[in-house]
Amino acid sequence: MANSTNQGMWQPYELLFCSVELTESSHTPLVCMVVINILLAVTAFVGNLLILVALGKNCPLHPPSKLLLRSLTVSDLCVGILAEPTFIAYWLSVVKKKMNFCLFAHRTIYVTGNVLCAVSILTMTTIAVERLLALTLGLRYRQVVTLKRTSVLLTICWAVSIAGSTLHFVDYTLSLWFGYMACLISLVISTFCYGKIFRTLRLHHRNRVHQQPAQSIQTFQRNAMRYKKALNTALWLQVTLVICYFPYVAVAFISSAVSRMSPALFLARQITLTLIFLNSSLNPILYCWKINEIRNSVKETLTKLYYK
Question: N or C: which end of the chain has fewer CB within 10 A?
């Protein structure tokens, strides 16, 4: 494997993950993961579809913020209808020893899975930057953070994700390090943004309380409460993504560092992939929990469906 990956040869690496020697001892756990991921695929599809419907209604969110949530929701929806079913097909082909189909499925899942995961990570980073700008720009926020600029930025995020994922067909090692660097840079940017936000909030609160009249303080407190609510939602989404993605990143890094892939490492990669998919099912729950407008819209949609 080390020689194959270092030379950037796709086919030997692909054959490795469809080899009987590597996968035969994992059949029973893979069947369990097939069942779990069927449930996760259904919940990701239904949950994120409801969120898209809610965001399409007269939701009183700032349009750029709404667009960012839509991008994240679309990527999670695609996980439920594209990535998870393809992974399920791959796992079943391994269990049934249908190696020809296994090769095709593995090719497909690597590209689709990487694209959607990269979009989720980049969108979450963009949300962190948007929350920082909302705090630091003040009244200029709506002039700087426009719907058009947000659309262009999200288009770039999708394009970079697709380009980075297709590098796998050119050089596996290059695509692997591209993914590592993208995750690291995104994590650094998000950490910086939220750290800056908390420092600025603490400073603003101290200055406003000591320098402003009572009426201004009340206005500031209302605005601060509204902002903190949106910030809290973004933080929950960020923390959930890190918790769900970190185990796979760690296992993938270990796999690339060792000279030979073992059945235990293969199984660990498949289990941690399920944690990544879990993130797409958890996000709709977080939206409904943290955003009252979305929760009410989802309730309204479900009520209409129930009484039809």
Answer: C
Contacts of the segment 74-78: beta carbons below 8 A, 24+ positions apart: 74/48, 75/116, 75/119, 75/120, 75/123, 75/280, 76/44, 76/48, 76/120, 76/279, 76/280, 76/283, 76/284, 77/44, 77/45, 77/48, 77/49, 77/52, 77/280, 78/112, 78/116
Give residue-wise pLDDT tens across range 94-153. 888 888 888 888 888 888 888 999 999 999 999 999 999 988 887 888 899 999 999 999
Q: Are 279 and 236 in contact (CB under 8 A)?
A: no
Mean pLDDT confidence for 241-259: 85
**Burial (CB count within 10 angstroms: exposed 0-12, middle 13-18, buried 19+), residue 162:** middle
**Site of tokens 């998870």:** 84
Buried b / exposed e across 263-276, counting CB within 10 Å, b at 16+? eebbbbbbbbbbeb
Q: What is the pLDDT of residue 21?
A: 79
**Cα separation, 186 vs 126, whole angstroms:** 9
Q: Do 208 and 217 meet the contact criterion of CB atoms below 8 Å apart? A: yes
Sign of the four-CA dihedral 139, 188, 160, 18: negative
What whole-number distance in Å separates Cα of residue 153 and Cα of residue 156? 5
Kindly state the tokens that stand for 157.
């995020």
Taking alpha carbons only, the member of 57, 75, 41 closest to residue 295 is 57
Identify the burial level of 28 via C-beta atoms within 10 angstroms of its C-beta, where 0-12 means exposed, 13-18 middle and 19 or more buried. exposed
**Alpha-carbon distances, residue 145 vs 129, 137, 142, 248 (angstroms):** 10, 10, 5, 34
Residues shown for the chain: 308
Confidence of residue 2 (pLDDT cuts 50, 70, 90): very low
Residue 281 near residue 47, CB atoms below 8 Å? yes
How many Cβ atoms from other residues are within 10 Å of residue 113's Cβ?
A: 20
Cβ-based neighbours of 145, under 8 Å, separated by 6 or more = 62, 64, 130, 133, 134, 137
Beta-carbon contacts of residue 266 (< 8 Å; ≥ 6 apart):
17, 22, 23, 26
